[in-house]
Amino acid sequence: MTGEEIKSTSVQYNMQSWSKQKGINPISVEKAEGIYFWDYEGTRYSDMSSQLVNLNVGFGNKDIADAIKKQVDQYCFVGPSYGAESRATLAKMLIDLMPDNMGKVFFTNAGADANENAIKMARMYTGRNKVFSRYRSYHGSSFGAGNLTGEPRRYALEPGIPGFVKFFDPYIYREPIKFESEEAAGDYYVAKLREQIIYEGSDSVAAIVMETITGSNGIIIPPKNYMPGVRKICDDFGIMMICDEVMTGFGRTGKMFGFENFDVKPDIVSFAKGVTCGYVPLGGCVISKKIAEYFDDNFLSCGLTYSGHPLGCAAGVACVNFYEKANILENVNKVGAVLKSRLEEFRDKYACVGDVRAIGLFSAIELVKDKTTKEALVPYGKDPEGIMGKILGLLKQRQFMTYTHENMVFICPPLIITEEQLLEELVKVDEVLAIIDKEFL
Ligand SMILES: Cc1ncc(COP(=O)(O)O)c(C=O)c1O
């Protein structure tokens, strides 16, 4: 097929996620390597979002491809109840990466079903039904994960599941209260959450689910004392702390897992994306030893045909080994520091940049109409004039590929990016921000 044929056939037959179907104009990708991909006309694009913040190792990783091929030659599939070397190996590797309280892994196909199973296990283990999650969150699009999700992508599922309660995020930039310090902010959010848990009936709350650092809803990095404060609430009331590490896991924030930035041990960790970088879909949840022991004698009412798919697990083993071999955390921290400081320069230079937030290679630029009032460039949940689409178009004209959400532009490149590559790409962002200041405010 030619690039044009692929595009027209896709548009005619393939439904695209989170979109009106009319007017879609996908790039047909012919080849891809490292942080770049090419269309059928030979134009090179830079992947500055790691696709959907999952392609941490970039395109064309030979170690992962070889591991998949080897697994194909052995067998592609045996059911979850059989022993498969790649499945057993990856489960052990993940437990070895986790804090010492963690015990076992339940594998899923992706992130949404990781969260589905995480909350099911928390409910079975505690015998309680309520689940807390935050407004500015995305946890997946299936029914349970979609109800955990707090942002507008949940609306299509409503009225939602009874007992799914939302609480406010530690989103200091948009908080009307002016705090004396980050610590004071952390204390405030934790105290409000404690109050809300009590009002909801603390004995009925099974789990608090959080993206450790909020991803798609704006790289919201909590104050240092926030997660330990939530941990204490969980301990005080017997609630399971579930960290959704689907985006933040596997090096994205400069630590192997996002929660390591806050010195807490979760009860359940959901993961997907970076475990295989999409070379084969895979997700799962890691549960504490205590929860694992509970299911020694109690029926685990969870199951998937493809739980721990051998191909996915083979990709996962190679991928996790690659992170270590490539010293990926060192690169994330080194290049991440450059990213953060360039973004801070943009915040000082441009009227349209209200805030920038970055940790590791996980970053967002929050666009505003007015820096003083912080009025967002587009209203929450709406963009009637398609402004963010136009901004993406300006970046795309420069072959800088990423995505936006609300009034934010994300820069989350593959973790293998070099400083030189990053600086080259940020020149394009600089140009586009100058245009926004001139034409969009
Ligand atoms: C934090 C988080 N959790 C869950 C999901 C859902 O993962 P999946 O799309 O693999 O189902 C995503 C997807 O972007 C995510 O960012």
Automatic annotation (TrEMBL):
It comes from the Bacteria. The keyword Hydrolase does not apply. Pfam families: Aminotran_3. GO terms for cellular component: cytosol. Gene3D superfamilies: Aspartate Aminotransferase, domain 1, Type I PLP-dependent aspartate aminotransferase-like (Major domain). Signal peptide: none annotated. The keyword Nucleotide-binding does not apply. Belongs to the class-III pyridoxal-phosphate-dependent aminotransferase family. One of its GO terms (molecular function) is pyridoxal phosphate binding. This is Taurine---2-oxoglutarate transaminase. Its cofactor is pyridoxal 5'-phosphate. Keywords: Pyridoxal phosphate.
